[in-house]
Fold this sequence. Notes:
Elements: E1 2-6, H1 10-21, E2 25-29, E3 41-44, H2 46-54, H3 58-64, E4 70-75, E5 81-86, H4 88-94, E6 99-102, H5 103-114, E7 125-129, E8 135-139, E9 144-147, E10 149-152, H6 159-165, E11 172-184, E12 194-200, E13 203-210, E14 214-222, H7 234-241, H8 247-255, E15 262-268, E16 276-277, E17 280-282, H9 297-314, H10 319-348, H11 353-364, H12 369-379
The structure holds flavin-adenine dinucleotide (FAD).
Amino acid sequence: MKAVIIGAGMGGTSAAIALRQLGHEVEVYEQVTENRPVGAAISVWSNGVKCLNHLGLEAETAALGGIVDSMSYVDAFTGETMCRFSMAPLIDEVGQRPYPIARADLQLMLMNAFGHDEIRFGKKMVAVHDGPEHATVEFADGSTAHGDIVIAADGARSLARDYVLGRIVERRYAGYVNFNGLVPIDEEIGPATEWTTYVGDSRRVSVMPVADNRFYFFFDVTMSEGAPFERGTARDVLAEEFAAWAPGVQKLIRALDPETTNRVEILDTDPFHTWVKGRVALLGDAAHNTTPDIGQGGCSAMEDAIALQFAFRDHADDPHAALAAYERSRTERAADLVLRARKRCDVTHGKDPEATAAWYEELRSEDGTNVIRGIVGNIVGGPLT
Ligand code: FAD
C-alpha cells in the first residue's frame, strides 16, 4: 500500500512513521520550504509521550523533555502560592511522565525519525480527490501525487477538510490571544522543575521547563479578534497588560525576547464526525482543531497516528475498511477533548466571571486531587491507554 501524507507537522510525521512501521510505502508532502514550527513549545502529556514511545522515540523524547515534578497556581497580584502539589500521583496513575518539549526540537525529532531528506518540502496541495483505484493530490506547482490513501494532516486551516465534509468549516474565536516563547530558567519566575501558573483577572501566565535549561512561557490575554499588533512589540504590550502583576511576571516580561515571542489568536472548530471520504482521511488539527487549554491538540494528533496504524494492522488489504475503522475509533475521543478544552477555556478566561472567581477560590484549597483527576480524565481514552 502507498500512503500520501499532506503536512509534515506533528500529526503528519507521526502518521508517516506509524504507517512505515507496518511496512507501507509513504510519501510526505509539505508546503513550507523549511522546518519552522509556529509556537515555542508544547506540553506533551502522558498519552502523547506514549505515542512517541510507540513510534520508537522513547529515549529521544525523554532527552528533549523538561522535568515537571510539581504544579503550582500563584495569585497574579500578590504572588502568593494558592496551591502546590506533586505530579507523582498522576505519573503513577497513568504510567508515564509528561514532557514539555520545544516545538522545533519535537518537530525535528519526528522529521528525522521519518527521514528529513525524504520529506518533499515546497509542495502546496491545492486540491484532493478520491477515486476508484487511488486518491490524487494536486499541487500548486502543477504536479500530482497518487496513493492508495491520502492522509490530510494539513492543520487547522485544512483544505482537505472542506473536501471531506463537502462544506466550508468556520473556525470559532475563543476570546483570547496567546503570547509564547522561551527564556532561560529563572527561579524568581518559578521553580526549575515546576509548571507554575499565575492566575487572576481572567488571564494566566505560565512557565514550564523544557530541555537545555529553558522555560516555555505563555501569556493568555483576553481581547477581541483581529486586534492590531506589530511584531517585535510583545514586551511593551505585555508590560502594559500585566503592569499590576506579581514580581515573577515582571521578571518574565523583562527576560523575554520580543523579536521571537509568538502571538497566536486562539480558535477552534465545532467537533464533526466525518473524517473520511473514500480513500481520503483527515488527521490532527484538520480533523479536530482545539483550543490549547488542556494541552491536548498535538497529543490527539499523535493518537490519531497510532489509531491509523492499528486500523491498517487490522485491515491490511482493505483501505476503505481500515479508514472506516480509524474514523470509528477516533471521532468521539477527539470531540471529547475539543469540548473539554473549550469548557476549561471558558473558566480560565472569564466567560462567566462568577465561575472564574469560584475556580480561584477552589485553587486556594486545592491539594492536587481535583486538578490531577481532571488531567487524568484528558489523558486516558486514547489508543494506548
Ligand atoms: P500542524 O502542526 O498545523 O501541521 C500542519 C502542517 O501541514 C504544517 O506544516 C503546514 O505547513 C502543512 N500544510 C498545511 N496546508 C498544506 C497544504 N495545502 N499543502 C501542504 N502542506 C500543508 N498541543 C498539545 O498537545 N499540547 C500543548 O501544550 C499545546 N499547546 C498549544 C499552544 C498553542 C498556542 C497552540 C496554538 C496550539 C497548541 N497545541 C498543543 C496544539 C498543537 O500545536 C496542534 O494540535 C498540533 O500542531 C497539530 O498538529 P498537525 O500536524 O495536525 O497540524
